[in-house]
């Protein structure tokens, strides 16, 4: 296939892709991706003073291809999430040259990645997570109790959608309940570091360097916590994932401290914020559409569709970065070896070539081949758990809530990487 001249995105248009504040205005961001997908679905984003150039893919087919071809598009040579030049240099100065602050599963390539993934993969298979249904149902019930006690009006995010998946993943890891607030704080600093309300700094418009310093501090705190947990789980193993990681061996040796910390962190942080965002997104959609809420109450067979559509519609993981292992082409454009690429899951999940009326929240959408969990070797390890958590929680909500509406305007967090609602004011009546 003949390649075309490089299409460039520069100036304010380039800055808009990497500015976390822009992701607060969801519709405007979708408009931006729609224009790019229509005009230049693969485009080179250039802002030399701020960041290294990278290719941006916005069509479903291109994002799917890059996601699945793990030999040609690598995770580890460069940062697996977007980073500007100054932040990238700061990270390398701390890690000894590694562009990724956390050496987790998402930052690994073969042969190390499949070796590490196999250590916990069985834990997250449907046959195993089904054994936790009763426990998760009890957590869902106690979570909804808080909503009931709030008296008919509440902010759904801090009361329900943030603590519930955190509690689940901490149970899986074997982290004591008394430490959960600390874990919540740290996960929000890691993934919500760009938002002053989530990072608890109270400082609006922080520089990327300031944000990175917060994130580095959170990672250091995580590492210290999990180092202590590792000692405990090696001395007294229990039936949890932390014990599996602490005692796992690859090629006859325990994981290094850095690799082990990365494993814990990705399970703790990614298993929380993503499900929280999808849960809040589904609740917002239902609050805006009382008829759909009533249909769901009457017919629980619609629930899997609600869950799947929420995950597509919210797209909590907004992008990942990849690095070309050799010269190739994408969308008719030459991609050189070592070129950096951003794959936008937001854009892919709203591609009208695949999803009819993509901005509409449609529980009956079928098929729903969204890319929120990624694809290929790096497809999300916890996808079955996320689906089950959401289904159990919404069953509980539907049993106990009769009517639902917004009590104010929801607000999204500032974030280029993991995004979602940080406030969702709702008004509701209880079932009798």
What is the topological layout?
Elements (H helix, E strand, L loop, with lengths): L7 E2 L1 H8 L7 H14 L2 E6 L3 E7 L2 H9 L4 E2 L10 H11 L16 H10 L4 H4 L3 H17 L3 E3 H6 L1 H11 L6 H12 L16 H28 L5 H7 L1 E2 L2 E2 L2 H32 L1 H9 L4 H12 L4 E6 L3 E3 L2 E3 L4 E5 H5 L33 H18 E6 L4 E2 L8 E3 L1 E6 L2
Parallel strand pairs: 1-2, 3-11
Antiparallel strand pairs: 2-3, 4-8, 5-15, 6-7, 8-11, 9-10, 12-15, 13-14
Helix pairs in contact: 4-11, 7-9, 7-17, 9-13, 10-11, 10-13, 11-12, 11-13, 13-15, 15-17
What can you tell me about this protein's structure?
By secondary structure, the chain is α+β, with helices and mostly antiparallel strands. It has one domain (8-430): Cytochrome p450, CATH 1.10.630.10. Helix content is 49%, strand content 13%. It has helices at residues 11-18, 26-39, 60-68, 85-95, 112-121, 126-129, 133-149, 156-161, 163-173, 180-191, 208-235, 241-247, 257-288, 290-298, 303-314, 345-349, 383-400; strands at 8-9, 42-47, 51-57, 73-74, 153-155, 249-250, 253-254, 319-324, 328-330, 333-335, 340-344, 401-406, 411-412, 421-423, 425-430. It has a six-stranded mixed β-sheet. The protein has a three-stranded antiparallel β-sheet with strand order 5-15-12. β9 (328-330) and β10 (333-335) form a beta hairpin. α10 crosses α13.
